[in-house]
Amino acid sequence: MSEHTQVYDYVVIGGGTAGSVIASRLTENPDVTVAVVEGGPSDVGRDDVLTLRRWMGLLGGELDYDYPTTEQPRGNSHIRHSRARVLGGCSSHNTLIAFKPLPSDWAEWEAAGAEGWGAALMEAYYARLLNNVVPVDEKDRNAIARDFVDAAQKALGVPRIEGFNRAPFTEGAGFFDLAYHPEDNKRSSASVAYLHPVMDERPNLALLLETWAYKLELDGTRATGVHVRRKDGEEILVRARREVVLCAGAVDSPRLLLHSGIGPRADLEALGIPVVHDLPGVGENLLDHPESVIVWETEGPIPENSAMDSDAGLFVRRDPGQPGPDLMFHFYQIPFTDNPERLGYERPPYGVSMTPNIPKPRSRGRLYLTSADPAVKPALDFRYFTDEDDYDARTLVDGIRIAREIARTEPLAGWLRREVAPGPHVTGDEELSEYARRVAHTVYHPAGTCRMGDAADELAVVDPELRVRGLDGLRIADASVFPTMTAVNPMIGVLMVGERAVDLIGGGA
Ligand SMILES: Cc1cc2nc3c(=O)[nH]c(=O)nc-3n(C[C@H](O)[C@H](O)[C@H](O)COP(=O)(O)OP(=O)(O)OC[C@H]3O[C@@H](n4cnc5c(N)ncnc54)[C@H](O)[C@@H]3O)c2cc1C
């Protein structure tokens, strides 16, 4: 089929978390035309997507790109990285836990060269968000999760936090804020909040759904559009009069750059991809929040009410010298045994789990291509637990010990019949580390693969205005631009990147 051309002012590649924000804001100006190239279908009318509590049913299904990791000698090689293939992106299949990044996160970004991204300025972008961010509703607060919060507070002496986004914190236990509508458990995802209200009313907004972007079009050093393939095989060159904005996420943004010849020269040459622009940082600095899991059998069934089965959590700061928390826990009202089962552990009929994770992991991974064929998934080598001081693994060992302290404390203790995994006999540092790493999972937070940095930083992919270094007409706005990992779950940070990108582009009404 021959390729034809469509022209818009802006082409947004990826109608996901950040992309939905940008497309919505840019088209507030009726004189500006925007095309969104989105690989997945619409989420409108899809209860399987829009009902928050059904999130687990989406993992690994037809709306999941489902990226494997490379072998992880120090970790778990079986982790599958879910990435949503649907309008709203990962905000359409995640758990919508909503944390404004902490002031210490923004300070770290600034120190890494993201000039102008300090906490005071970023506050305005949080205020702009259209998502319905509310604390877990009273009716969704399960009795065992309430007792987890009480026990954590008592066992560790940390404060109870009601509204994690009200003020910066370093420690505390409580129910999360979620981007949802408690009355019907519907998502307040990026697409629901930003696109649904306007998508049928704005002739200047074109949603090209089930359309895959496989190569950027460049005229010299200027990005002028993108080559896409529609579901029926039709190929289109979607041109941008003003800018191309890449919002395909931490996996697919670097993937598209690499297939377009933008990346580390030697890697591209080795695969026979013509080098358009040597940019060594593309795919480097692959970050994540790794987690482990402790599972208990409960004395019997747990009440059913919940927003999405992991409604409460805990932050701890073990090292008072740190500006923010250095250990985080999600509490699951279900026995989360996917990884332990592979090691021979059983799934109890009724149970709960705590998943300690590393807010500021030190291991750094890398994303790279293994083929010049754009259909082949890239390799994701997170290099889990490879940091020099073994900080990451030690953090999870501390996490298991702290989780046990909480489990021994009333009012939680009375619910629990026995520890299923790793089991009370596993107590030594070495054994705990081995267990923690082999059952390690991801909190699904890949980031950093096109990181922002200053002009002197050769491994930076975008400058503080989100422009790709050395090229014109091309910005990136999604989780890939994170210079470092936020201590908290990243989605709100991604939405704020989207809002800020609109200002930097100079668009919007
Ligand atoms: C299961 C799960 C649970 C999570 N829970 C939470 C949570 O509770 N709280 C939190 O803060 N964070 C959570 N996260 C992380 C958070 O959702 C992500 O960090 C964030 O949504 C990423 O946004 P993004 O804009 O970078 O990418 P995405 O939202 O993934 O958007 C990328 C979009 O681009 C499209 N796309 C990609 N490549 C192409 C291409 N070549 N052509 C066309 N379209 C393309 C995709 O279809 C997708 O819609 C979770 C993630 C997952 C997977």
UniProtKB/TrEMBL annotation:
Residues 249-263 form the Glucose-methanol-choline oxidoreductase N-terminal domain. Its cofactor is FAD. Pfam families: GMC_oxred_C, GMC_oxred_N. FAD binds at V86. The keyword Flavoprotein applies. The keyword Transferase does not apply. Belongs to the GMC oxidoreductase family. This is Oxidoreductase.
